[in-house]
Amino acid sequence: MTTQITAADAGNWLLGGDLSIARMGFGAMRLPAWPQGSKPSREQAHAVLRRAVELGVNHLDTAAFYSTDGVSSNVLIREALHPYPDGLVIVTKVGPVYGPEGAITGPMSDMRPGHHPDELRRAVETNLTELGVTQLDLVNLRVGGADGTFDDPIGPVFEVLAALREEGLIRHLGVSNVTPKAFAEAQKIAPVASVQNWFNIERQDDAEFVDLAAEQGVSYVPFFPLGGFELAANEAMRAVAARHGATVAQVSLAWLLARSPSILLIPGTGSAEHLEQNVAAAGLKLTEEDLASLETVK
Q: Is the pTM of this model over 0.70?
């Protein structure tokens, strides 16, 4: 009889020092097909979320601005899982707004920084309402655009979220799309539990930052862990996948788990089949030979 691989096979991490989660999580961005892609039906989205929890996933990544046609990933999460099972950690993010009226959602082309204190409070309150909770487990401050990591002063904006944390609306704080300099500035204001940046087997610009986060006991959560909107794949990755009877996507996820003990994964999908394949990567243990051959990818 084959033993079911679960998210727990990836190992666990104490997020913020007090929230125990499996290192294999789930990103909800694709459920409303934001900002692009094929959108599952509401029922399919609910089924994927429930199956994720059945497979031991207890770390969900979401945002109020992950929304199309008036339905956000937050709402889908609440509909599928509320009242939430014990130990489920839901991480969200704030920072961008869309359009001149400061709307929470909209096309990516309309994105601008929503860093005024009123805008940040409204974003936090929207996440609270949509998720049906009184405190958010972790809120990432997403800064910058799509053209690179944010290196400008982050302090005044992060101070707003730190104040909301003091009010009890937020448990832990994180930063997203930042350089180590911006990260260090945020740390002087309030504890930073997590960094969420672009990192994967083909894009390793953040390699030193990954190591720095691990040294400091801070989780590093790669967005686009499989390469982006297109799957990263090359001959070395295909060869490793063939040796293990795995997929290239599973190899990419297993490589990230092996890369650093503080890396947490949030691959997203609107398909229950792909979800199960992603979670199965938690049980894929790459050999030293595998890792050496994959070093040629970067």
A: yes
